[in-house]
Prior knowledge:
Blueprint: E1 7-8, E2 13-16, E3 22-29, E4 32-34, E5 43-47, E6 50-53, E7 59-64, E8 71-77, E9 82-90, E10 96-105, E11 111-119, E12 130-135, E13 140-145, E14 148-156, E15 159-160, E16 164-169, E17 192-195, E18 197-207, E19 212-222, H1 225-238, H2 240-256, E20 259-260, H3 267-282, H4 311-324, H5 327-340, E21 365-366, E22 369-370, H6 376-393, H7 396-416, E23 428-429, E24 436-439, H8 440-459, H9 463-484, E25 485-486, E26 491-492, E27 495-499, E28 502-506, H10 515-518, H11 527-540, E29 549-550, E30 568-569, H12 570-583, H13 587-590, H14 594-602, E31 613-614, E32 621-622, H15 628-648, E33 656-657, H16 679-688
Antiparallel strand pairs: 1-2, 2-3, 3-4, 5-6, 5-11, 7-8, 8-9, 9-10, 10-19, 11-18, 12-13, 12-17, 13-14, 14-15, 14-19, 16-18, 20-33, 21-22, 23-24, 24-27, 25-26, 27-28, 29-30, 31-32
Helix pairs in contact: 3-15, 4-5, 4-6, 4-15, 5-6, 5-7, 6-7, 6-8, 7-8, 8-9, 8-16, 11-12, 12-14, 12-15
Amino acid sequence: MPRDIPIGNGSVLVTFDREYQVRDIFYPHVGKENQAGREPCRFGVWADGQFSWMGPEWHKTLNYRDNTLVTDVVARNDRLGIELYCTDCVDFEEPLFVRQIRVKDLNGTARDVRLFFHHDLNLYEHSDRDTVDFDPGTKSVIHYKDRRYCLINVAHGDRFGVEHYTTGEKGTPGREGTWKDAEDGWLSKNPAASGSVDSTVAVNLHLDAHGEQTCWLWIAFGTDYSEVKAYNAFVWETTPAEIIRRTHNYWTFWTAKEELNLSALPEDLRRIFMRNLLILRTQADADGGIIAGSDSDARSWGHDLYSYVWPSVGAIAALGLDAAGYPELSRSFFIFCATSQAEDGFMMPKYFTDGALGDLKHPWVHDGAHVLPIQEDSTALVIFALWRHFERYRDLDFIEPLYHTLIRNSGEFMCRHVDPEMNLPLPSYDNWDERYAVHTYTTCTVIGGLWAAAKFARAFGDDDRARRYSNTADRMKEALVRFFYHNDLRRFARCGYRKDRGYELDMTVDSNLVALCASGAFPADDPRVVSTMDQTWEALWVKTDIGGAARYQGDAYLRLSDRLPGNPWTLGTLRLAYWQIAKAKSTEELERAVPLLQWVARYALPSGVLPEQINPYTHEPVSVSPATLSHAMFLHVTMRYLEVLEEMQPHRAPHRRAFTREMDVYGMPIVLAREVRAAVAERVLAEVT
């Protein structure tokens, strides 16, 4: 089930599903660990002897306040005659999840209403050896195990502290969970439980006819009792309403710190742009990792989770964030990559956000030979994105230590990981994590990565290394044309399998082939690229009323019809938009990308969340939502559209005006506006290019 409204601050990430149930609670890292159990944390209302859990019976709108990561939810239950106005946030600074519920009577009668908040927590992502108890000292319910503490408390009016609660065991016959205890409108006040446990707390409110009352709930996260006790005291002293207000103000300021001129975009794209940026922000960990998704329901499809850092996904996110004027996030990501990189200079396929190696899907042995279970595009794209970052920001002081570690190590690896006879990369797994071969996509990213590494080497006076990197990339480009371009079909192959005299080609049409121009390996007007891309999009466009572009021809992953090339993917459609931008020679040609961007906006969730795939018949989300790669690519492609439009129409107001924020290593202000540059950094860049 999609996660309609994620909220977070880099160390806490909370997600809600379409029924407004809390489904994921990540702490102390985004994507690790998920302290929520596999069952939802339920939210229910009792009124006049009737009870209802939040679900299909409620009419709901799930959204955010404008330009914030503060939710704006309205839920109405006609049977109960109740309407709820809900606001949720994760404090921008502290590990606090705060909820405000305003309850309104619709029946025109004075009555008592009870709100029930159920929490199914599995600390450290497993349910055994948990403890939950009522703590009289803080008037709260606390779940804890080892170094994980979650303190739950409430307030209404001038009353602070939990008065109605119960705790209990779950997951065994006859013990479904404490949420069942709530359905008669009362809680048994069982004070403690251990093992596999959950809890429910309640707030009793009295409503006048057509009246309203407000209550708050918060969860404080910490590593011991003293921490959560201190955070609880902070909420009491600050008040939950003030925490929501200050978090609202923070995100409003965060989205306004760059003067983005979006006037060239249609209204629907302007509306979703900042929402897209904020949702992408929720997937970024405070330590730099950017996860691919936070939807734990991926388990139910028989697959691993998406809550890992794929360096390739993070690199595309960095391209978009840098273009939009948020380099602090991309810098943190590049530092994460530098500290996670293997000693031999390559990036592994995925990592946890604390820097630990993620699960490996593939072995270290292939056909009896020792191989690297890597996706080499991850290594290449990080260096490619890092050069684009330096082109924009000229931050030599940031780049210098990375040159001697991340950049050189990656460049050396990409030079070594080459078939000496064919001058193409050795086999690796594709970015879909499916095939072990030599891929056109991977080869193009390596060419782009090596050229980027060569520019860095030249900037730092390392001319011999720069020539070696450039020459390797040049030979690779020639070999790609020689072995992978099919003259009869007039297009590049998706991949090839090494044989004695060359490669057995796989000519499956794949949206990955956009890398031919996106990596800079070939100009967009190269006839071979044009022919390849024209055939690609003709084959991949999903011919239903929904439309959109599939990932590749014959994609079986969650496919809903064998008559289609695959489900429409947000990524596939955005790649088509990128191709329209790349090949455009006029503003009229450039405008062909806009309907494709609008397609993405049209099939976003009302909150702005972008799914990985779309049902080709009903436009319902399929697979993980939000999908970080979808959000990253939307940001990247939209910013690229604005940049190219500005190049074609230089009289237009610039799409971004930024502010002086720091000093470079020469004591000169780094000003991001294009008409003012740090003179030394500008000269270095000019010499390199």
